[in-house]
Amino acid sequence: MPAVDLNFVEQAVALIGRKPADLIPILQALQDHHGCLPKEALARLSELTEIHPSAISGVSTFYDMFRLKPAGKHILRVCHGTACHVAGAGRVEDALRRHLRIPAGADTDDAQQFTIEPVACLGCCTLAPVVKIGNSTIGHVSAEKCADQVRDYLDQLSEAAGAKSTEEVEHRPGNGSAQIHVGLGSCCMAKGSDQLFHALREQAGLCGGNVTIKRVGCMGMCHRTPMIEVDQPGKAAAFYSDVTPAQAGALMQRHFRPRGLLRRAGRLWTSMLDSLLLEEDAPQRQVARFSMSKRDPAVRAFLENQVHIATEHFGKLDPLDLDEYVAHDGFAALRRCLATPGDNAAPALSPEQLVAAIEQSGLRGRGGAGFPTGQKWRVVSRQPGDVKYVICNGDEGDPGAFMDRMILESFPYRVIEGLALAAAAVGAREGIFYVRHEYPLAVRRVRAAIAEMERRGWLGATLMGAGFPLRLRVVEGAGAFVCGEETALIASVEGRRGMPRLRPPFPAESGLWGKPTLINNVESLALVPWIIRHGPEKFAALGTATSKGTKVFALAGRIRRGGLIEVPMGATLREIIEKIGGGAAEGRRIKAVQIGGPSGGCVPASLMDTPVDYESLREVGAIMGSGGMVVLDDSCCMVDIARYFLQFTQNQSCGKCTFCRVGTRRMLDLLDKLCAGKAQRSHLEELERLARQVSAGSLCGLGKTAPNPVLSTLRYFRSEFEAHLEGRCPAGQCAALIKYRVTDACTGCTLCAQHCPVHAIPMTPYARHEIDLGLCTRCDTCRKVCPQKAIEVT
Amino acid sequence: MSAFQITIDGKEVEVAPGHTVLEAARQIGIAIPTLCHLEKCGPLTSCQVCLVKVVANGQSRLTPSCATLAVPGMVIESETDEVHEARRTALELLFSDHVGDCLSPCNRLCPLQLNIPAMLRQIQAGRLDEAIVTVRQSLPLAGVLGRLCHHPCEQGCRRGVFDEPAAIREMERFLTDHDSKQEFRQSVLSMPKAASTRQSVVVVGAGPAGLAAAHDLARSSFAVTVIDRNARPGGTLRDVPQADMPAAVLEAEVALLAGMGIDFKTGIELGAQVTLDGLRRGFDAILLTVGELAKGAGEKLEVPLAGALLKADPSTCMASPPGIFAAGSCVKPIKQIVRAIAEGRAAADCVRLYLRGQSPRRAGKPFSSIMGRLEPGEMRDFLRAAGQEPSAAPCSRCSATNRAAAVQEAARCLHCDCRSSGNCLLQHYAQVYGADASRFRSERRPFEQQLQPAGIIFEPGKCILCGICVKLTELAAEPLGLSFVGRGFDVRVAAPLGRPIQDGLQAVAEECVRHCPTGALVFAEKTIPADGKV
């Protein structure tokens, strides 16, 4: 093994610092540099810094992103988010392991070429199943095709060496009156929208200067990316989905007058484009229409304008164009809370009034538990002392949730404004964005937005060049779901293992470095500027008696149209799933919707008229959570879903308290038994009893809510658990309980035999094929490739 | 703020501000169990065994009392079924991931719970005087058992999986023979001199069960009289062929019992020379250990019958109240001597409780975590820890005729018991709360033992991750210290940077061992010789 370059440790320490709080950033730098954390480097680190060896060992083994062993040349991160799970992520991982010859129990092949790392959620749920190779995200991966997909990636790698990033190009406001908006969120980019962006720019140059190709944030319809909107003065906007860079020229031809002789050819091209043009009934139009469908025209008009609050101007704004944000009322709310420069007059809104406004708005925390935001602000504002902190919690770890990622990627200035307003209200002079490292684009954009504001003198010594000093920085998480819990998040910012502690004292009283600390979720903060600009009454007028305003949901799973939506509180699940999401896929029946991720529950189809508000969802055994909404249909096994979530929380437990550390593991053992058809009735009873005890006895929210997915599936789908006791999986998902069989419809085409990865189907041309069940791994490939639908699962 | 009142289990207690619920409860004598609590460490809130229920505004929640500050007017429930169930579950969860046996299989399988590994360690160290005390404390009629016991202990001996079990019965025989040569100096020293209580018990029948009961009752300082219809005590032991046990062995044991102050009256038959009523007038309790009943013999005894046997409640050994107990083959047929002796012991326990005004109850089996079979790799570790090279040719057990042979044989013990048994909080609370160590039976981790040259032994499988040692190294500013390594179910305590654990314990090794709530961190040297813990 080559000697470890210890100079880099010295450089990293010199650049980042020597204090205990610098540990995680240093380790991140070492990991980036070496691909892992070599033990020589860690030993050197303890010599060079004030960081105690026990912290180095404790922290480097706590967070998912740190590897102690070298990885292969290419790292494949297989997403195991909820949407990916129900779309077959497990089969994809199995297939990749087989294809890349990664031995059982290892994560890297013998030739050190490929490493497979399962990840909790990449937040690209509408493209499920998703695999990230290097920095590229590949959506809609399948067990049958993943080998080709990896090969394509490797082929492109050499070609793409010079590919431009959309983050580094200058985003100048164009002078053209026409604009083409290209959605450049993570989901869009996973489907190549950045390459499309460059292609369009090139074509726009050829066309003449009267069209601006504009980067915008998420456009909502994540399942049809890359998406573009062509905006021409005096014409209705045209939407295109699934556009490839090769079609950029044709697109320009269609909308903008071509010069020269290409006109004729252009027409031919554009007729082809018609097929890509979205029907007028585009779902993101429906988002608006959804509220308009209310009969009362007055209410209709009111709601129509109120749907997008956290996501105001979605699909229109360049995420990093500060001037554009300002032109759209950006920082108007903040300015009202700051004294006018050169004038000693008090600000229009005092901190006290600011707190009162948030209280009046009825805003409740959008991170999960729904604690009243104003009350939190009040407590922190009343704490004595000069040093206070505000933290934006962007550690969105729920599998199946990507609202916060989208908001940070698309509206970084809005969240900065929200955090600055919070700082103004409580008297904090320092703020932190805690963002998970799995969201590199969000991290980059928030950092860029902060840098831009610092460049203008709007952050730092004075806020907006007039107010109090405010310093903001980004702290990247290192991969630990539990760090979404406030006290664990603080431990992580302080450079420690993300272990929660008992509350009280709450962070509002004793938080970061023992000082009063306000922690709000991304979406909560994104709502704040709107509330201040429009007044709390206007916000409180939306929603239900106890849940005000809107809620952003990440809609994904077994549904026709997934994406990012913002609806008023009180909308029913049916409205969201059927109207916005378009309901179940052809021939399928919706069985349940999972809300609230691993702390939430599964609401059965029979309760689809439940309105989304904190209390109603709790009543039916789910929670609002951060807003992940994964729709499950009749092909999903509810026991498997319960097991899936338990596996997630068990894997994410910090390991501190007995009930969570061992209790969730024992629950998982019982669920494993059920899925393997080896459970008896007494196991089912023990599972239920233990679930209640883990919930009652755990120290923090993670453990207390971990049993929820089990309890809610037991409540609504007990018959499926009972079936597993009898050795049956009604949904045909649990591998140990199902068999594949070839029916008489087989024509002997041999496709199944060719594709079977484990050679369980002997090739018998023109004769009915047979599956060797001893060899069969139930990977489902044969059924998927069979053109005659001659493979059945029993 | 001045002191205020809170309510725990309906009792008001005055609490100073800043005190926890745990401290308040201890003030009024409510013993909330704790494993991870050590005052100087502050709340570590890891074990969750100290849970209590806080009731407020019609709602309630469980909370760790060690970290929950008392606030005025607080209402707490501690000693309720619900809270106890939660504590028991926490213990059971800890046991489900606890790799190690409190008691060795030989010890558990011995109906008399002889601490065999302790005895063997004493023999190995040449301290035969201590070894004989260990034996005599657990085994009535030790000399007899050293010859006649069917030794279930040896069937369970883990060494037997590798080559041959330790020759445990041989060791007992060697010790008692050695003792008899020294005129039972140690045995006599370890026995109480005379009855110091006025309460008296008569044991009817001087067979193995009766003699064992008499032995235990005399040890509990009751005045014990044994009557038997035969001319000499011993019952069926008198029928044993001389080749299996010379008569002198039995005589010596009886002499020892007589030396303890037991009054033997032979040639007296119940129903003939004495009546039950007569005994009842003369003694505070009567124990019938009359052995197998000849036809019609039961009726003469004037106690309830179940068929041809005496009827006695199996959980209390009570034949008919007040104060008449029965045990041994007159209650149920018993084949093995050691079982008869164990029955006598169980009855003696019940008699003792009865005479002390408590409800008689047969003692349950002592609690033990159970690790099960050893994997081959684990066997190697145990052999190595016992100072034996796994590669050495299997040693066949020896018949211990001399001291050197006995020492050599004793050295074959794998010491698969826990060095902290009897000194372990986890084990203690498991007994108190009636925890079922196998409730969450599942695949276990491999047993691991880190033997450190400095004499510290760390067994990670027994660590409950309480965090006390980690915190103590931090408080003592150990240069290396200890750390939690890993996350979730796989968290382990280790010295940082892959160093051996002793390097992290420069100044606080002793303190850490002392405060380790289980047997995860122990000193090798202090536990192998002395056996004060059990």
What CATH architecture of the largest domain in chain B would you give? Answer: 3-Layer(bba) Sandwich
- Quaternary structure of the protein: heterodimer
Task: Kindly name the structural category of chain B.
Answer: alpha/beta
Number of domains of chain B: 4
Low-confidence stretches of chain B: 527-534
Residues in β-strands, percent of chain B: 5-15%
Second rung of CATH, namely the architecture of the largest domain in chain A: 3-Layer(aba) Sandwich
Tally of DSSP helical segments of chain A: 33
Radius of gyration of chain B: 27 Å
Structural notes for this entry:
The complex is a heterodimer of chains A (794) and B (534). Chain A is of the alpha/beta class. Chain A is 41% helix and 12% strand. In chain A, the strands form 5 sheets. In chain A, strands 14-13-17-15-16 form a 5-stranded mixed beta sheet. Mean pLDDT of chain A is 87; it is low at 278-306. Helices cover 34% and strands 13% of the residues of chain B. Chain B has a 6-stranded mixed beta sheet with strand order 8-7-6-9-13-12, with helices on both faces. Chain B has a 5-stranded mixed beta sheet with strand order 2-1-5-3-4, with helices on both faces. In chain B, a hairpin with a 6-residue loop joins strand 16 (483-485) and strand 17. In chain B, helix 5 (128-138) packs across helix 9, helix 11 (208-219) packs parallel to helix 15 (337-355) and helix 19 runs antiparallel to helix 20 (509-515).
